[in-house]
Amino acid sequence: MPIQPGDAIPSVKLMQASAEGPKEVDAAVILGHGTAVLFGVPGAFTPTCSARHLPGFVQQAAALKAKGVNTVACVAVNDAFVMAAWAKDQGVTDEVVMLADGSAAFIKALGLDMDLTARGMGVRSQRFALIAKGGKVTHVGVEQPGAFEVSSADAILAQL
């Protein structure tokens, strides 16, 4: 069952690019303090993710912070090197934390994985966005296949 309001962010190791190379981080720590917004994408460099999803959160980062959001993070089932390259390509600096879930362990713990093996992509994340306060989920928006409505930065701003 997918993560629901009231559930805690699971303590699962993710990877984050750093100047010294990939470093291990704990999802529950990154997203467990204050108000956090996490959005998940099927993959870095994929069309909707690159044209609309990530850019929307970069553009709305200041508005999210103004509404009390401490952390804005993006997660994808990619490795830390791909996430760093995507961040560079998209002009992301420190307004969005880029998290790599290379083996989909975190996405599976959230119950938001999907199997795209038949399309040559393996296990990926569904497109979603959630809000957590103090490590507890308060809102989850999961997109229907092909849709981009409930997980956009504007949709999350409306929930804050």
Structure description:
- Pfam families: Redoxin (PF08534).
- It catalyses: a hydroperoxide + 2 glutathione = an alcohol + glutathione disulfide + H2O.
- It comes from Roseomonas populi.
- The chain has 160 residues and is α/β, with parallel strands linked by helices.
- Helices cover 29% and strands 29% of the residues.
- It contains 6 helices and 9 strands.
- A 5-stranded mixed β-sheet has the order 5-4-3-8-9.
- The protein is globular and about 40 Å long.
- The chain starts with 12 loop residues before the first strand and ends with a helix.
**What is Rg?**
14 Å
How are the strands ordered across the major sheet? 5-4-3-8-9
Strand % is 25-35%
Topology as a string of helices (H) and strands (E): EEHEHHEHEHEEEEH
Distance between the termini: 24 Å
| Tally of strands | 9
- Total number of helices: 6
Q: What is the averaged pLDDT score? A: 95
Organism: Roseomonas populi
Catalytic activity: a hydroperoxide + 2 glutathione = an alcohol + glutathione disulfide + H2O
Function: Thiol-specific peroxidase that catalyzes the reduction of hydrogen peroxide and organic hydroperoxides to water and alcohols, respectively. Plays a role in cell protection against oxidative stress by detoxifying peroxides.
Family: Belongs to the peroxiredoxin family. Prx5 subfamily.
